[in-house]
Write a structure and sequence with these properties.
It is built from 11 helices and 7 strands. By secondary structure, the chain is of the alpha/beta class. It has a 5-stranded parallel β-sheet with strand order 5-4-1-6-7, sandwiched between helices. Helix 7 links the parallel strand 4 and strand 5. Helix 1 packs antiparallel against helix 5 and helix 3 runs antiparallel to helix 4. The longest helix is centred in the N-terminal third of the chain and has 12 residues. The termini are close together. The mean pLDDT is 94.
Length: 206
């Protein structure tokens, strides 16, 4: 096996803990009656998918969601809905990422949207007052790549930009379909459970 040089982490479920049912309730509170059918654990539907794959920007999404709800929603309303997914932001995992960066390049590869990333990349993200960017070398998002996992496009977008070699890279994701494509592309893979403390498992691969 080649020497490990890079580690790529999924965001939701791996770095932060999340709960789909909680997100459904958060969107229902702002008036999205069909939230249960539109929100998935790993993949979204309708306009929720459009904003994650970059086909719709944040403002257009807000306007379209307002039409669905039959009332004008603010940016904060929509952000609060998306943040409903988040149950915990474990500081110990973020601190561990910075420890890993002493030896490896550390990346995020996430199916996400401008609302979640706007929060994650702000000082409001952690109790330490630091954004996600302070803990990783680079963040790759589905809406910027124009592709969502498990499509290979988002992986190839990251590979081309970072110039990483999958054979020298561990890919950590809690989604089974994402792990399958990761293996097909040559990554060393690890699939923790949502919210799991995966540090010891990862150490065994390093």
């Amino acid at each position: 096996m080649k020497q490990i040089k890079n580690i790529v982490f999924d965001f939701g479920g791996v770095i932060i803990s999340f709960d789909r049912e909680q997100a459904v309730k958060a969107f229902e509170r702002i008036g999205v009656r069909e939230a249960d059918s539109l929100l998935g654990k790993y993949h979204q539907q309708g306009i929720f998918q459009e904003v994650e794959n970059g086909n719709m920007d944040a403002e257009t999404f807000r306007c379209e969601l307002s039409k669905i709800c039959g009332k004008e929603l603010t940016y904060q309303d929509v952000e609060n809905g998306w943040k409903g997914f988040v149950t915990d932001v474990p500081q110990y995992k973020l601190d561990y990422l910075n420890e890993l960066r002493k030896k490896y390049k550390v990346y995020i590869l996430s199916n996400t949207n401008p609302y979640v990333m706007g929060w994650a990349r702000s000082n409001a993200f952690t109790s330490a007052g630091k954004p996600l960017d302070a803990y990783v070398d680079k963040i790759y998002t589905s809406y910027e790549a124009g592709s969502t996992k498990p499509d290979s496009g988002i992986f190839n977008y990251m590979i081309k930009d970072s110039k990483l070699n999958p054979a020298e890279t561990i890919f950590v994701d809690d989604g089974a379909a994402n792990i399958v494509i990761g293996k097909e592309l040559g990554f060393i893979t690890m699939q923790p459970e949502n919210g799991e403390d995966w540090r010891q498992k990862l150490e065994k691969l390093l």
